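pinging the channel bc i need a second pair of eyes. not urgent but kinda urgent?? the chain im working w is below, pasted from the shared doc
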Amino acid sequence: MTRAGGALLVVGDVVTDVVARHRTPLAPATDTAAEIRTLPGGAGANAACWAARSGLAEVRLLGRVGTDAAGWHERALRGAGVRPLLVQDPDAATATVIALVDGSAERTFLTDSGAALRLSPADWSPGLLDGVARLHLSGYLFFAAPSRETARRALWDAREAGIPVSVDPASAGFLAELGADRFLSAAEGAETLLPNADEARSLTGSDEPDSAAAELSRRFPLVVVTLGAAGALVAEGGAVTARVAAPPARPVDSTGAGDAFTGAFLAALLAGEVPARAAEAGCRAGAEAVTTLGGRPPAGPA
């Protein structure tokens, strides 16, 4: 059960995003005009910011960054209403992602994980769960040995404390490299799994989101599969229990749309909403997210 009034603790990646929006196809071996911005990002950090944007009073974020950009990221998180718990890595630069966004708002990532996946068990303490009502783990942590062990310890300590845990699988490409069985084994014990359709397919081998969601919900009590503009599926106990539509939106950049869903969904659960209503909140946030450049909420009131 979620503890009413408690904080959300996100353990995950903090990333410097270089977003290049090109309206024409990439021209190999020459120039392609683009709108380029350097923005704060990272699946874990984005989700935390969207949870705060959704009205959650206390959101904390544990992540590892390089000394190169630690101050910038801390200021950005605080400005978004998130309490940063950033570990500075003296030997690795902050993770960087180059997001190539085409004219349809679809994005392709080039990822240098840098310090993010160097989050180590020494960076974790059960005391970080004091006052926490829900723990969320960014799936990127599961794709390197040190951060995977850290995620497992955090998950175990949360379960021991009776705190529900959610996991976002994060990347179908990295899932394919790691292997579905290894990921599912590492995430065992989580209460909620939040894959998108591609990630659900990678984890189950099923091309049908309904079947994949139902199958995963035999392993995790609550599974929500996001479907982009088509909304989301909620599955519990081996069956799809709700289908949620997404509001219409005119997309600019799909970067961070899934993170927006996650943050708003978790904030709604912590506010006492049932999963279907929480998924509606997530879809609204995702629809807002695609209308702006980058993965963080826009400035100003929601």
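so Residues 145-160 form the longest helix (16 residues). and Residues 159 and 201 are 27 Å apart (CA to CA). — does that match what u expected or am i reading it wrong
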